[in-house]
Amino acid sequence: MDERLDVLDDDLQVIGQEYRKAVHEQEWLHAAFQCWLYMYRNGIPYLFFQVRNARVNYPNLLDITVGGHLKAGEGPEEGSREMKEEVGLEVPFAELTPLGIIRDTLQQPNGKQDRECCYVYAYHYKRDITELRINPDEVAGIVCLPMDDFKQILERNDHHYRTEALTYQGNQIRTQSLNLTIKDFVPHTEAYYEFVLDHLSQLHNAK
């Protein structure tokens, strides 16, 4: 059965509940939990991107490590279940670092706008990447990029940028040279990506 979501007004107050399909068709504002995993490799900060499953929206594109809708009546703590559901990671909610709340609008393949109020968190991942248990129904793999390289990709827009990435598809880690543009990523707004990078850079600089 289609899950019910809270419908929000422009002040982010709940004004009703509706099924997910209707929320997207009517372009109503709704809430989402998101968490960016990051790690350090030789002192360099890396961001974890999930590779979207080929059977979901934005197939095979790179996206936020973990994310999902908040069901009606839920807050970010309940939404953190996505950590386990998508990558098999059980983390106490108190260990996540809140980055803030930002509105984001995604253009869906059908032309509709997916309007989200994003509760954004970060998690410093200190284990081996192979300990992640990827849910193949939702995630095709993980790509780890140096944070500064992702900044370059955003700045170059449609121009390719070559980066040395770590890739993981549930069996082994590989080092690959990838030639990426912003079109290889889910089309979140520029303001959204800048918000995330700014806050993650603050975490890195405070390290």
What does this 3D model show about the protein?
It is globular, with a radius of gyration of 17 Å. The termini are far apart. The longest helix has 16 residues, at 190-205. β10 and β11 form a beta hairpin. Helix content is 20%, strand content 41%. The model has no long low-confidence stretch (mean pLDDT 95). The protein is of the alpha+beta class. Strands 3, 4, 5, 6, 7, 8, 9, 10 and 11 form a 9-stranded mixed β-sheet that branches. The chain has a two-stranded antiparallel ribbon with strand order 1-2. It has 5 helices and 11 strands; from the N terminus they run ββαββββααβββαββα.
Shape: globular
Tell me the major beta sheet. Answer: 9 strands, mixed
Query: How many helical stretches?
Result: 5
Taking pLDDT < 50 over at least 5 consecutive residues as the criterion, the unreliable ranges are none
The ordered H/E elements are EEHEEEEHHEEEHEEH
The beta-strand count equals 11
Instruction: Give the strand content.
Output: 35-45%
Calculate Rg over CA atoms: 17 Å
| Mean pLDDT value | 95
What's the end-to-end separation, in Å? 45 Å
Classification by helices and strands? alpha+beta
Which range best describes the helical content: under 10%, 10-25%, 25-40%, 40-55%, 55-70% or over 70%?
10-25%
